[in-house]
Design goal:
single chain, 276 residues, two-stranded antiparallel ribbon, 8 helices, 4 strands
Length: 276
């Protein structure tokens, strides 16, 4: 790029920024609900409940069903059409899929060397669900609430019920596997971490909710509601998708390995008595 072209690009960029600032200054301030009310609605969804087969439900439940359906259909299509065509020299899609599977399988093997078959499948499924459900809110799918207004479907795990379900299900996998493989010692190991499902649930909920509240806060104030919300929403969402997927799968793998590890002590060989 020549010096003249760089100068023209800089001038155009400066003019756009100037026009944006003028628009912010001259735009009338619309009447909005208090920020406390907006943030409470973002958590509780009191005014955006949706009717599902005659039942009044949280929109997060609709999001959970939608994400589950998307993942299930995608998995079936991959199994039927993609996997039979896999080659020894992988293409881009095959390489991406094998990399994801290898990562979660390696995570399971490193934390539970003896009992990692089911663990690898579970952390892969949980990781895909967390990542997909977090990114899901970026699509901004709309539903009609019971009060007739339009509501955006939130991330399933930004609803406290979805986060609790994921936390307790993960703890259930750890506890049941500990009882099956580790017997009494495994059950004790799992039960002593009774606060684990609560910590996992609120870690998921708090991280995802913080991103949603920050985005709502930025949208609420007019001077910040130009361009910036889109950047903030995308960055927070992608960052939370990566971090929370890693954190939960790592925690499940570590505690699963502790509850299912072998505790049989090796018998020490008896020393031979030396005859005098």
């Amino acid at each position: 790029m020549s010096k003249k072209q760089k100068t023209v690009s800089a001038v155009i960029f400066g003019v756009l920024i100037l026009l944006l600032l003028i628009g912010i200054i001259l735009s009338p301030t619309p009447e909005k609900e208090p920020i406390q009310t907006a943030m409470r609605d973002g958590v509780l969804h009191e005014h955006t409940r949706v009717s599902l087969f005659g039942l009044s439900v949280n929109p997060g439940l609709i999001s959970a069903f939608t994400v589950t359906g998307i993942i299930t259909v995608f998995a079936v299509l991959v199994r039927i059409f993609a996997i039979p065509r896999f080659k020894e020299i992988p293409g881009k899609f095959q390489l991406a899929l094998e990399t994801a599977v290898d990562y979660f399988s390696g995570l399971a093997r490193s934390n539970s060397p003896h009992r990692n078959g089911f663990l690898g499948a579970y952390v892969f499924t949980a990781g895909v669900y967390i990542a997909t459900s977090t990114v899901f809110e970026l699509f901004g799918l709309q539903v009609i609430a019971e009060n007739g207004s339009s509501a955006t479907l939130p991330a399933p795990l930004a609803d406290i019920n979805g986060a609790i379900a994921m936390g307790f299900m993960s703890y259930g996998v750890i506890l049941v596997s500990g009882i099956i493989y580790g017997k009494a010692h495994g059950a004790i190991n799992a039960l002593k971490d009774f606060s684990l499902p609560i910590s996992m649930s609120f870690r998921l909920f708090g991280a995802l909710l913080s991103g949603a509240l920050v985005t709502d806060l930025v949208y609420h104030y007019l001077p910040l509601s130009f361009v910036l919300p889109a950047i903030v929403a995308v960055l927070f969402t992608l960052l939370h998708a990566i971090i929370q997927t890693y954190v939960l799968t790592m925690l499940v793998s570590v505690f699963y390995g502790e509850s299912t590890e072998d505790h049989h002590k090796e018998k020490k060989p008896k020393k031979k008595k030396v005859k005098a």
